[in-house]
Amino acid sequence: MRYFIITLGILILGVVLIAGRRGDLSRNRPMQIFPDMKRQAKLRPQTANGFFPNGFSSQLPPEGTIAQEQPLTVGGRAVYSFEDAPVNTGRQTGSTNFIALNPFPITGGFLARGEREFNIYCAPCHGRTGEGTGITKKIGAMAVVANLHDKRIVEFTDGEIFHVISQGKGVMQGYASQIAVPDRWAITGYLRALQLSRLGSVDDLAPELRAKLQ
Amino acid sequence: MSAIFPKWTNKLPLMIIIGGTLTAGAVTAGVWYYFTPKYFRVGYQPIQPVAFSHATHAGQLGMDCRYCHSTVEKSWFSNIPSSSTCMNCHNQVLKDDPRLALVRESAATGKPIPWVQIHRVPDFVYFNHSVHVNRGISCVECHGRVDQMEEVYHAKSLSMSFCLDCHNDPASKVRPADKITDLGWTPSEDPNEAAKRQEAFGKKYVHDFRIESMNNCSACHR
User: Fold this and answer.
1) Is the distance from CB of A20 to CB of A28 less than 8 angstroms?
2) How many other CB atoms sit within 10 Å of the CB of residue B60?
3) Domain A108-204 adopts which CATH fold?
4) Is A39 on the interface with B (CB under 8 A)?
5) What confidence tens digit (pLDDT) does each residue in A115-135 have?
6) pTM higher than 0.90 for the full model?
7) Using a CB-CB distance cutoff of 8 angstroms, which residues of chain B are in contact with residue A125?
């Protein structure tokens, strides 16, 4: 009996020593005892797949493909993403002149959306206030980051800001693939509000509010 | 006659019972403890081709998850960022660092970085990120404190009972929409106060947003 208990004890100890505890870090892929139908022959995004010559599961659409999509509604008109329309390019149709004003109506919800997106995509470099003092600048990792309150940038038209967000400028790369078109316009609207917050004066206030302040 | 069965055999039935119980107990405990995703999945931490650290980027730099995982709110699938996303910063930051050689090469040639996938549900399960993230479920519930991980590991079991535990009681997990990617967020510093606030908030949120407990099999096995 004694030997039995000792053997059992050694066995348990061995298993625990080899197998470890729950949650231990391991470099090995989790084992799969019964494969069932856990892995099926179907394509998943962003995985390797030998079927196509380039080895990707997600293929780029052929040149000139038109996406099946819900069009945007701008000024009561449906605009598709392939159109050369101001809302897609920030430029007047058929010219290289930037449009002056945001094609979307500026509402509270629109600006709130813009604030959220700005804080996600722009704040790491330009900072939450747009001064160009984001965290990457603060720790000295990034040398040049534009101050969005610069007179030159304040004088940009809305279309030009949209264009910078979409295509980038200089060392800043474009965000067209990450941020949807309406969100890029929302960021433009919010950036305008940020810039205005530095340019406002007491005279802009309604008379009764001004009286309250003084 | 006494030589046929020596004296110790009197104890044999007792020994068999004790031995059997001990062995069965040990085997049961072993199966219970080890034969579960809580053991074989949690802690899986493959070696990634680039020593990318969430603790640096999401923790110290305070980047929002959606800067890189930008489709997480829009589609069922959460993307791994392309190397051009890394180059947004790394065309200036650590420009010539050898740790980023693969990223630069990938951005220049378009050959993807072979990141090793960590979380993956079986193909017969339908999972969707956007329904969760837009309904007040934070990344931390299913991925743990990624913002503190030098290298990502599988923090939760993602077994069926794990999913159902929450689907049975979403009110205890939902949080305000702007705190989804703030992994360290709690309703209050004080645990008692936090539990109270969570209960009140959860009840209201589940009611206002009409969150249903999806427990029918076809919600996930469709």
Assistant:
1) no
2) 13
3) Cytochrome Bc1 Complex; Chain D, domain 2 (1.10.760)
4) yes
5) 999 999 999 889 898 888 777
6) yes
7) 89
